[in-house]
Amino acid sequence: MITIENLTKIFGQHVAVDAVSFTADKGDTLGLLGPNGAGKTTTMRMITGYLPPTEGKVLINDIDMFDHPREVKKQIGYLPEQPPLYLDMTVLEYLRYTARIRGVRGTGIKDNINHVAELCGIADKLGRLTGNLSKGYRQRVGLAQALVHNPEILILDEPTSGLDPKQIIEIRELIRNLGKQRTIILSSHILQEVTSVCKKIAIINQGRLVVFDTIENLSHDLETGQRIIVNVAHMDKVNFDTLRSLSYVTQVEKLSDEKLRIVVESGHDMRKTISESLGDMRAGLLEMRTESLSLEDIFLKAVTGA
Asked: 150 by DSSP, 3-state: which?
């Protein structure tokens, strides 16, 4: 479990992180989002103990990071945006080194390395110099070092950076499985990635926490009306003014040559009326479905208020 209380970091006159508070329980995979320069990486560095806060607390399983740093850091695996590799070491040498400095001893070193090498798809790369690996494989080795001591907490900054589409799918599935028994905080610019692996999100903007909830709750709370997606065969026959004049319709937007978005006030089912209206126009209704707010919509609303 991770508890963040009024976490603040000030560099000179610049407030990079401003009184951020949230919790993540065991089994939670939390997506940490925000625009460039919002304070995400600084927050993650403070959570891992890499950077001391100006004010506030980080509690890992109720233990204060900065009162008991060694004890707490044993429970954390951290993958920064740039994997912390020694390029003149082989993958095996590097994982042995990282296992030892994290307190793994005896036969546990070999067992743990073999386990994480299989998990991360690098078992056939153990003899290679890390400096000779592709960016995607360096990322996998970076993830392996974060897991080699079997931590309860994982902090992952852009974990699929540099991976090809097949590798991205594999690592996402790995993160989903790891998250069943661990607490994970994941930062990514790929919103689809956050949607696929995270249940909760925290959005930071200008150093402040502006959103913290499950994606499902946020989608419901931020909805300003029911969004209906309509596909038609003959867009040229659609009378937009007629659709906008229908009761409870607040917005009609053309998305493509075949697709419309119609927004209706919450609490009113207008699908039959819209279908009949499009039938009268002979627009050729092909499909009608409701649409929830996407994570991109939630992000933009939180950051811009749009």
From this structure: coil
